[in-house]
Amino acid sequence: MTDPASERRRMATVLVNKGVLKSPWLCGAVETVPREQFLHPGVFLDEGRTWRPVTAVGTDPDEWLRIAYSVDTLTTQLDGHLTADQTGEPVAGVPTSSSTDPTTVVGMIEALGLRESHRVLEIGTGTGYSTALMCHYLGEDNVTTIEVDPQVASRADAALETVGYSTWTVTGDGLLGHPHRAPYDRVIATCAVRRIPYAWVRQTKPGGIVLSTVGSWPWGTGLAKVTVGDNGTAEGAIIGRSAFMQARSQTVTPLAGDLSARTAYADSERPALVSPLVLEEWMPAFLAQLAAPGAQFVRAARSDGSLLRYLFDPERESFAEFISDGENWTVRQGGPVALWDDIERFLVAWQDAGAPEIDAVRLRVTDRSHVYWIDECPSLRLEHRLA
């Protein structure tokens, strides 16, 4: 029978070789904390259009350990309620909770620059595995973790207790933070948010760090790392690409119904200066989300196979429809906001600046605004006013 400890050591070696696991204390945590304990009652394995349930009970122990230490993201809940023990057959569904791949988990914890005296607030407990890694080093009293889903929170709390960490587990809206145990030295979010809530900045000590994925699309999101200043503002940069499930209260409902009805009345039509297909690339998608925060990018095709691409902002009742003649694109826009005009302006400026990568983006968060910019490129500056 496979030894769980040997599997943990093997996974630690994989993460070291990937260059993400660097700190001796974190290596010790990875080699100690049993990830399999945080996957009960089971996981869903992606089989393309369906998810195959696999439970700890009824699965060969060696196979269960192989899954647990596969360095993959493991989905633990579908559609906000379904767990693997509730079905015996492959099912369709949308993942709503998971054990994020250890490469991402470890990389984010490394980015926090933790010291033994630090107090941490974690937004999005999930399975509790990342919570346990931090508790191993900081001690259970220095970690507060908050989860919006009561069932997910209950399972995580039970798993943490099982492995010996009676930390502060809270059920509630993580976008509000947890002021009752503030201030914190570090805030880490394991979900994506449209923008960093100022509540997190307010609850962080001067010199402390807030780390969170920003954006609302499944791709084109960035990992923001900001340091809180003495004046209550926070400034930093997008330090790389990052993809997480959206914070539950900010989840976007996919558009349904007759798309032609949504685009029936256009106020303008013109050639597109930039192909909308660039929005399928990471950095252009990130810029589009900054320029039009409420927009959704939708792919479709006509019955003859010709491509259609759309941008919709349901709240502002605005759209951009893209039609290809095989070589060029025409954009039709309607509603009070010319979505593509706003996005295209930033895409052209980005291309003119040499198409810098996402880690060139800097940001500042205050109680009144969020500002994004790229140094030495004044045309790539965007401010979101909160009031």
Task: Describe the fold and architecture.
The chain is of the alpha+beta class and 387 residues long. The chain is built from ten helices and 19 strands. A ten-stranded mixed sheet has the order 7-6-5-8-9-10-11-17-18-19, with helices on both faces. The chain has a five-stranded antiparallel sheet with strand order 12-16-15-14-13, with no helix packed on it. Strands 1-2 form a two-stranded antiparallel sheet. A hairpin with a 5-residue loop joins strand 10 (222-228) and strand 11. The protein starts with a helix and ends with a strand. The mean pLDDT is 94.
Descriptive keywords:
387 residues; alpha+beta; 10-stranded mixed beta sheet; 5-stranded antiparallel beta sheet; 10 helices; 31% strand; globular
Residue fraction in strands: 25-35%
Order of helices and strands: HHEEHEEHEHEHEEHEEEHEHEEEEHEEE
What percentage of residues falls in helices of 4 or more residues? Answer: 25-40%
- Output the radius of gyration: 22 Å
The first-to-last residue Cα distance is 60 Å
Shape by Cα distribution: globular
Helix count, DSSP H or I runs of 4 or more residues = 10
Count the beta strands: 19
Uncertain segments of ≥5 residues (pLDDT<50)?
A: none
Query: Averaging pLDDT over every residue, what do you get?
Result: 94
Strand order of the largest sheet: 7-6-5-8-9-10-11-17-18-19
